[in-house]
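Appendix B: complex inputs.
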Amino acid sequence: MMRRVKEELFFSKGKRKYLFCADSEGVEALYPLVRQAMEDKAPFDFHEIKHESDSFLDLWFSQQKMGTYLYLSGKWDFVHRLKNLAIEAGFTEYEVQIKVIGPIRKKVICCQCHGVNDVDEEMHITCMHCGISLEVSNHYSRRLEAYLGYSSIQSS
Amino acid sequence: MYRNSTIQVRVSNIQEETSTIKRFTLQAMDDSILPSFSGGSHITTFLPHPSGTLEKHYSIFNVSGKTGLFEIAVRLAEDSSGGSRYWHQNVQVGDVLPVSYPKNYFPVSFQAKHHVFYAAGIGITPFLSMMAELAKKNKSFELHYAAKSKQQCAFYDYLQNVFPNQCHFYFSNGDSTERLSPTQLLNHRIGTHVYFCGPESMIHDFTIAAKAYGYPSFHIHFERFAPRSIKEKHAFPIKMKKRDTELEVPANSSLLEVLLQNGIKIPYSCRVGGCGTCEVKVVDGEVIHFDSFLSEEQQLSNQTMLCCVSRGKGRLVLDI
Amino acid sequence: MVINDDLRSFPFPFGDSQVYKYSNNATPLRPPNAIELTDKYIDEIRLKRELLTNHPERCYQSSSQTLDAQWEIVDLILHNLVGYYPDQFKLEKKDEQWIFTNLQTKENIAFTFGDRTTLEVEPLDFIGRHVQEDLLLMMQRDGDLFLDAGQLCFPANWSLFFNVGMTFKEIHSPIPGFQSESLDDRILQFLMRIEAGTPWGRKNWSLMAGNKLDTSLETFAEWGQARKQVTKENAGKLVHLRVEVQKLFRLPQSNGILFTIHSHMLPLERFIQHTPWLEQFYAILHELPAFISDYKGISLYRQQVLEYLVEEMKKR
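Resulting structure:
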């Protein structure tokens, strides 16, 4: 869900309310959408999140009614945390768009030892747990929030 | 003709729920039990009829509390094509008939945080099993149920008794002040899934309203047991490419019926555009889709159709 | 020609086609039995239990919402076992108190149906230890099918640990060509319309260098090396035809789908004894598109196998 984080945000028309939610780095990316919401005379909340607690955010998300649409924008850790809170409150992938500012953290699971490796954009890694050479695939598990790394011998 | 397996059942009880609705309890022939079923399931019943076997679909539930039974509720329809009249006038306790295994085209959402059921009249029936399943799993739900009057409101006592905190009733004769209205859709919290069952116009109004309020389609569920009322059904010609044969589908027949009558063995199951079994490939022509199985994308492609309900806007060339 | 037992019980995977084509080749299952016992029963049961003990994470996965469906599977399989193999399995039921007897393994297991605490392992894990099949449970949730539980000891080069929780289409996304012509959509739609009381069966084949059943993704480094050792001379003995008999059952109470996979292996030299099979297999392997050959892991030694088959055809 919501893996197309590198793509541009678009305005999802016809919602009864919009939530715009960003960290200090993500605010700017939301401005064009806020403008469109204003043009459509649609109600919206704009929150720049600083030190709000999980319980505050959970309450805020949970009190929303059906028909609400959520935009998240900011650094990877920030959007990742807020996305999980929003889903927990009941938002689905059809009600949320995400924009990541800066690098995306990617996890790769080793096909041999199931160890987790953090990667950036590289396609070939050595598993830090068992030392096998891995090719990063696009086989993705939402449960593990990770990509599968195949043995390089196999994929060659 | 290919047909899925059936089970022989015996009618063990008939209960008058309202002046027009009867509840039939069906049990297994031997001392075994009938298969369990998930919330929202239905069965197809096969009834003898002068013009051939009548296939009718009914939601199944179990309000009598004994396991291993199917129960159905049948409303006597004024313009009955035979099914509901047969159930009301011919079926007796002790009668034996074949029915399908339970099928479910109307399951409850798994990831919903809250479920809201909107029923009108006999549309209550699929929700009986859905609410029972959710209650067993401690899930959050509510029911909004409209009927003509308290007397015409099937399962009123049962619902008041078993789900006292979840049920809201609306009577159009003035027994209640409030009327069932799509604006109630504005009240539901994020994470709600809504379910509609009732007359076509009610499903239509609620679906349109939910979409206008911004509900994603993913959160909107409905079930219709009758095919969508087709305002004008026109005859249309078809050509079967592989057989190089032409046929005419009259205005009062479905394409599936015409194919079957001509000995062309098209597999089918639900006959109301819900299961997808009778899909045929379209080579040329424009299809008017009436099914609820194909995705919008598949429908717009004009390359495929469910021949039990969908029709040609003019001539169709089929890859059969 | 003499057809021995291993050939007679071996599921012929090719139908009457001379070329390989992706398709939904499922047919209604007759008889509707989820399970098949072969003369390798005791050996394979022992192997499964060893793998489950030594590699639990690899061989068994489940999510918590599957327990009801797991009991439905226990119900279905136990009744299949005693119904189709009454000499080898017994089941006594008094209300929810069930006693299952496996005469081959000489086990007697008493439990309360529906009560997880009365079994040593989860219900799916329990019943899987009495059948040669791998058992996968796909739950239908929110308009899609999810692999939510499985006992998998004999995978054909995939990882249950990684794939559990994924949708049908996510799981199959690495298969080349599977998404073309929306085949993945159609098969998903087919699976989602499977009805209780009408199970389906299909067969899937590949070649294996070696005779190991437990060819998991995790242990590829151990078994994958044999692919490099295939020669025209040893292909008949080293290379095996591997056929998965897959069966699909709708579970009406949970609305899930049980997917049983029985993996059969036969050395090529046994399979090709029957000359028409030899000729048909040669034709199919010869025409196999490169991307499917790659996916099935055959490419490294396909040439050697083809040469072996040509030699054999010359002898007939």
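Chain B touches chain C at residues 4-7, 35-38, 41, 100-104, 107, 109-111, 218, 269, 275-277, 293, 298 (CB under 8 Å).
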